[in-house]
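Human:
Care to share another protein and its fold?

Assistant:
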Amino acid sequence: MTAVRASDTVLPIEAWARDGIATRGQIYASVGGVPYVDAAWGCDGLGMAITPDTPFRVYCAGKPALAVALCAAEDAGLLRLTDSLGSHLEGLAPALAEFSLLDVLGHRAGLGGVGAFATALAPPALRRVLALTQTPAPGPHPGKYTEFAGWELLNAVLEVVTGEPVERSVPELLHGRDAWTAPTLDPRAEVAVNVLWRGERRFPLLAERYLSEPFEHNAALGWVASMRTLGRFAEQLLECAAGSAPSRPGANEVKRHVFTGGEPVWDRTLERWCRLGHGVMLDVADHYFGDEWNAGSFGHAGFFGVTWFAADPVSGVVVAVHLVDVVDANQAVMVRRPRVARDVTALAGRDR
């Protein structure tokens, strides 16, 4: 197989443009670790040509990297994911201190006190204070996209156990004899600018902050990756699920904590049932990833469906997508994502 170039017509780029799906983006797809799409087309939000190596801010689609870093920290003897937050962080509300790291990773702590936009607008020091002083909401929380403070707490735990800021500790934890290829929190990354989701009109302060400060060390908002990197990370997650990469840092812990299967758990923050909530969504069909995925497939998405990846342990298919055109959130999730998933996975069986 040879990777698809941006100039190739294998991807239905003209049809996507005609149907209002996308006019520019970056896609990586592979079968069994062998790429069959590695394409980019169009320009970013500042008019710069997108290449397969262009790094984008991938938002929540990078959260699995923090989950894996925490597994690697357990592998290194720095913590246990069953530890309580209070065993690592001081000054927490008693109800918050009792939750385990797994509770936070699985959104089972009901952390709804600090929303997405407050998280994005707050300076790092204030964001940390807001996270540490919040009180868990009683019962299922009615809001959405409110788990950001929980990931800020996980950032804080990693900083305590490693003695380093998270932008340094995460790469160090993920590197080893069999290193991970994963989204980064590297503050030196030159990130391509996306078209903001109605930001200029509805959220002018948020738009100004994103453009003036294109990078933040934020576990929910600061991850950076090309789709080639995100796709290779998903391939490595497949290897961990199969138990075929035991030397990779945290691999055994990833398999035990992340790919456990079993009974679904109730996600108190987003009000949904998830068989797997530790930073990687499972049952992708239930999250509008389309009908092309076999049982046990997993993935994650970020920023209203702009970026997403999915991986299928049965077929070995991995797809990672970043579409620069930011459309209405419901259209991006319920219409665009399953359409692109169908079109890209359909190419997997073609002879090349």
About this structure: The first helix runs from residue 13 to 18.
